[in-house]
Amino acid sequence: MIEAILTDEQKMFRRTLRDFGAKEIKPYVQEYVNRKEFPWPIIRKMAALGALGITIPLEYGGTEAGAIGVVIVMEETSRAGLRAPLTHLGACRNISEFANHELRSRYLPPLAIGEKIAAYAQTEPWAGSDATAMRATAELRGDYYFLNGTKCFITNGEVASTFVVLAKTDKTKKGEGISGFIVERDFPGFIVGKREKKMGAETSPTNEIIFENCQVPRENLFVAQGEGFKKMMGSFNGERCGNSAACLGLAQAAFERALKYSQERETFGQPIAMHQGIQWMLADMAIQINAGRLMTYDAAYKLDHGIRAVKECAMAKAYCNEMSQRVINMAMQIHGGYGYMEDYEVERMYRDVRGLAFGGGTPQILRSRVAYELLRGR
Ligand SMILES: Cc1cc2nc3c(=O)[nH]c(=O)nc-3n(C[C@H](O)[C@H](O)[C@H](O)COP(=O)(O)OP(=O)(O)OC[C@H]3O[C@@H](n4cnc5c(N)ncnc54)[C@H](O)[C@@H]3O)c2cc1C
Fold first, then answer.
1. pLDDT (tens digit, 9 = 90+) per residue, 26-37?
2. How far does the centroid of ligand 1 lie from the alpha carbon of residue 252, in Å?
3. How many structural domains is the chain composed of?
4. What is the CATH number of the domain that holds 359?
5. CA 242 to CA 54: how far, in whole Å?
6. Would you say residue 230 lies in a domain?
7. pLDDT tens-digit profile of 339-358?
8. What is the mean pLDDT of residues 302-320?
9. What are the φ and ψ backbone dihedral angles of 302, each rounded to 5 degrees?
10. Are residues 239 and 371 in the same domain?
11. Which of 137, 146, 155, 178 is surrounded by the most beta carbons within 10 Å?
12. Ligand 1 atom 19: the closest Cα is on which residue?
């Protein structure tokens, strides 16, 4: 099915990224992981292929390749071991969809070519799944909004230059009181806080961001309170496809290693792949990856063709988040004790994939979203 829906251009883009992953990512991953370093040289090379401008219109220097483009980028880079920054793609999508021409012209071109990276700051220590409980405020005084508050778990907070920030312009309201701003890291009152110590994804720093009377020009408000926040949450559908694809990439890579290892490792006088217990694990992995891939491409295809896909995007992410954890766990099992050691990459994949099940909606929130759609006959 997937081969039938992809255009020749999309197939070529996938081939290019797969080659890029094998030559420019895979051999260098471990160096960056060991140093816990953001892989700027790799990110810039990815950008040269158009991978960072995928959610940006052509007129602002992007490649405008839609949800399927995002899926291809995320699956292939993730499969190679260093995924494209998904929150950058999401923040660029937000600016592309909601900002006026002047803001787009100012902010998007350097983001499209990877000269700068974007980040998305919504979560607060007391407001994760329930974003409407956020306490950050933005108050208009003269020509500036003054932002105050603390955001946490912000991916690439310490390396990004352009931030999409959500804050309340009306504290008395929930979602209707939230507005969106484009904030530069050099604005007065913008503080990068601590870097979190976390289980995996060492090459993608996760930071606290603090606003202390942060001075944001009034024209940088790009999503106005009222219906704005709701509309912005709608663009999470594309993010969910990208996240599902990142999970697929990791699951696929773990599966490939397990398939190979099972034919090399011998026990009881034969390769372990000859034992039915191992064969069934390999089959389960392949079945589940195939199901996840079909769900992800189905959701992305619908988004690209203007078909309502809220349910499909939520289903794909909930399924791929959990499927990839199961598949990588099986890959580790097939590697036996070696799978638990750092030398075999499944150990890193096992840690990396876990973090993908939080941002963009947890599997619980996604199930609620699926049920919401089902109960309305959609
Ligand atoms: C590695 C990583 C990177 C991140 N990057 C970013 C980023 O770049 N920008 C950003 O803004 N945020 C980011 N986040 C934050 C992420 O979006 C939140 O972690 C997520 O929204 C969940 O919020 P929470 O952690 O506060 O959990 P909570 O909302 O407190 O939830 C706790 C538990 O309760 C469950 N739960 C909550 N409500 C319900 C309900 N109604 N029904 C059933 N179960 C429920 C949740 O599923 C979860 O299991 C990142 C998080 C991680 C781990």
1. 999 999 999 999
2. 25
3. 3
4. 1.20.140.10
5. 11
6. no
7. 999 988 999 999 999 999 99
8. 97
9. -65, -45
10. yes
11. 178
12. 358
Rounded Cα distance, 78 and 292, in Å: 15
The domain spanning residue 16 has which CATH number? Answer: 1.10.540.10
Distance 153 CA to ligand 1 centre (A): 9
Same domain, 208 and 313: no
Atom of ligand 1 nearest to the CA of 363: 47
Spatial separation of the C-alpha atoms in residues 287 and 3, rounded to whole Å: 17
What number of residues does the chain have?
Answer: 378
Report the pLDDT value the prediction gives residue 235, as an integer from 0 to 100. Answer: 86
DSSP-based three-state secondary structure for 183: strand
In tens, the pLDDT along 90-141 reads 999 999 999 999 999 999 999 999 999 999 999 999 999 999 999 999 999 9
Centroid of ligand 1 to alpha carbon of 17 (angstroms): 30
Q: Which amino acid is at 372?
A: Y
Q: What is the pLDDT of residue 192?
A: 98
Together in a domain, 362 and 248: yes
User: What's the pLDDT score for residue 190?
Assistant: 98
Please check the confidence at residue 1 and state whether its pLDDT lies above 90.
Answer: no
Q: 68 pLDDT band (50/70/90 cuts)?
A: very high
Q: Is the CB of 87 under 6 A from ligand 1?
A: yes
Q: Measured at the alpha carbon of residue 29, what is the angle toward residues 278 and 12, in degrees to the nearest 5?
A: 80
Reported as type and span, the H/E element at residue 168 is: strand 162-168
The string of DSSP letters for 156-183 reads TTTT-SEEEEEEES-TT-SGGGEEEEEE
Interval 237-260 mean pLDDT: 98
Task: Return the ligand 1 atom nearest residue 121 CA.
Answer: 11
Q: How far is CA 212 from the centre of its chain?
A: 28
Range of the domain at 181: 118-224
How many Cα atoms sit within 13 Å of 344 on the Cβ side? Answer: 22
Distance from C-alpha of 47 to C-alpha of 41, rounded to nearest angstrom: 10
Give the C-alpha separation, 357 to 185, whole Å. Answer: 28
**Euclidean distance between CA atoms 117 and 332, whole angstroms:** 34
Q: Is there a single domain that holds both residue 214 and residue 276?
A: no
Q: Is 234 a residue whose pLDDT tops 90?
A: no
Task: Note whether 169 and 57 are same-domain residues.
Answer: no
